[in-house]
Amino acid sequence: MTAASNDFYQSNQIDLFSQLIKSAVGAWTQGVQALVEMAAGGVGEQGGAGISDIAGQVRATMRPLTELVPGALEICGAGRVGEEALARMLDFSPALAHAYVACAASTVRYWGSLAELFIGYETRLLKAAADRAAGQDPVSANQSRMLADDLRTFLREIGDTAAREAQRLQYDLAKVGEEIAQATDRATPSPHPDHNPRRHEVKP
Amino acid sequence: MNDMADLEARNADVVVSLGFSEEINELRRRIADWVEACDPEMQEALAWQFLAGSKYFRPFTIFACYRSLAPGPIPEQVMTAAVVIEFFHNVSLIIDDIVDRSDTRRGRATLHTKFGELNALMVSGYIVAEGYRYLGTDIQAIGLFSELLKRLGVAECMQWRLRRQMLGVEDWRRIAGEDTGSMFEICACLGDRSGGLRRFGGLLGLLYHGCDDVGDVRGAVALGGGGEEDVRDGILTLPAALAIRDPGIGALFCKPDPAGDDLRTIADAFAARLDEAEAYLDRVAAEAREEARAWSVDPGPLFALVDQTRKLSGR
Q: Among B232, B297, B295, which residue's Cα sits nearest to residue B264?
């Protein structure tokens, strides 16, 4: 590879890299917005400690994000509107409330994990993008390879985080489902003389 | 102490530290019985391959995954799966030894060196067929072993196709994850039967593969050599993926027919990356422990597995 073609390769790779970082930050902002809209979508009248905790966790999770996405805390503040509405859902059905809390907690954990990832990779990845944008420090072939590896690791870990959280949510919801099944079984036992009470446990 | 006795002593240490002594004895007994019941034409080669020096890490993984979810004795179905995983693991060793042109394994001649390549290939086919027969009607296990054989085949082809190329750590992770990773993923699934520990198994396999890569370089350095086979064939190991970020080393690594001096330079560059590789493996081990904590009732046996595997790098 000639020096000129090497420069061209690195230049295009880093521009692509900057775009990827911008896209990731954009996706993050949209995710926060979706979280807030989900919280604001509930109906009902009474409050609940669980929901306040979750809302608090959301705000705590979003705090470090403000360094990355200006205005994120303002978006998060809008989530308070939804707290009461969410809490009112708790009276509707304990099982439904459990499921709702499991989903909300899962969402918070997911975005919290993503925040950790962003912060963990922020220094190396965003600095490289900023340096590139400012036209400082041409990137060597060695650094370019390390950045490419870091970026690929970052993207894989975003995917891993989603897969891990999906598995956990599936497990939490299966437990709620089993609670519903066992409660139904106790309330309306089968008239059959050999009726066996349901003893199934959801395995991790 | 000679190589064989040293290996046996180390394996005994692993058995003691991980527990399951009775289960491993039972496993050995079943494998010996199986060899005795095989076709007389195959018995000598099978005895040579199976009756010496295994670390039984894969059966241990199956037992530990089962025990992390349920107390009590290991059920018959799980014991059978442990026997068959040892069958399939040995098939992969026989093929690896032929491909790598290795003369010795576990301190003695490899199967193809002792009995010839044709016999080694036929024995490996015989073992696969016996493995499926041995599983009987355990449909879930049959499905998992089929997945394993297919993934191992794909991983070997991928690893060979991608040799001598300027790839990164993420590429290594993909190859290792499909090679050793798939083996331990399936072990975890055979033990837990729910798939909850699949990711733990994959991480354990990745850790095993990486520790093996690092251990080879460390052992080669101690012996004054350079991890010859992988270096010679341009195989992407973890130290290689780190070292070839340096364009000069990368260029040597990609050479189709590197000279002796080139191989020594490459081996030195790999050795210089050992600390970085160890740090990477520490992170994989931490990930595996986190998975164990999240998806087991008692993560103790799984932590012990991670600790034992981590020692394989020889740090």
A: B232
Pick the closest to residue B46 from B122, B154, B106 (CA basis). B122
Strands B108-109 and B104-105: antiparallel
- Across A83-95, b (16+ Cβ under 10 Å) vs e yields bbbbbbbbeeeee
Within 8 A by CB and 6+ apart from A94, the residues are: none
What is the Cα–Cα distance from A116 to A120, expressed in whole angstroms?
6
B228: distance to nearest CA of chain A, Å? 25
Number of other CB atoms surrounding residue A63 within 10 Å: 12
Query: In the prediction, which pLDDT does B191 show?
Result: 97
ipTM: 0.80
User: Does the CB of B169 have a partner CB in chain A at under 8 Å?
Assistant: yes
Q: Which domains does chain B have, with CATH numbers?
A: 3-309 (1.10.600.10)
pLDDT number for residue B233: 85
Tell if the CB–CB gap between B170 and A152 is shorter than 8 Å: yes
Residues B33-60: tens digit of each pLDDT: 999 999 999 999 999 999 877 889 999 9
Is B194's CB within 8 Å of A153's CB?
A: no
Q: What is the dihedral of CA B166, B168, B174, B179, to 10 degrees?
A: 60
Interface test with B, best of A1, A113, A121, A152 (most B CBs within 10 A): A152
**B contacts of A146 (beta carbons < 8 Å):** 245
- DSSP string for residues in B62-127: HHHHHHTT--SSPPHHHHHHHHHHHHHHHHHHHHHHHHHT--EETTEE-HHHHH-HHHHHHHHHHH
CA distances from A115 to A53, A55, A81, A107, B87 (A): 18, 16, 23, 12, 45
pTM: 0.78
Most B CBs within 10 Å, among A121, A142, A150, A172, to test the B interface: A142
Give the span between the Cα atoms of B186 and B202, in whole angstroms. Answer: 8
Location of structure tokens 């034409």 = B41
Closest CA to A204 of B185, B296, B302: B296
Contacts of A148 in chain B (CB under 8 A): 168
Dig out the tokens for B289 from the structure.
């422990």
Q: Which residues 207-266 of B are in CB contact (within 8 Å) with A?
A: 245-247
Q: Which of B69, B169, B297 sits opposite A149 (nearest CB)?
A: B169
For residue A139, the model assigns a pLDDT of 67
Least confident of A12-16, A100-104, A112-116, A178-182: A12-16
Confirm if B230 and B175 have CB atoms less than 8 A apart: no
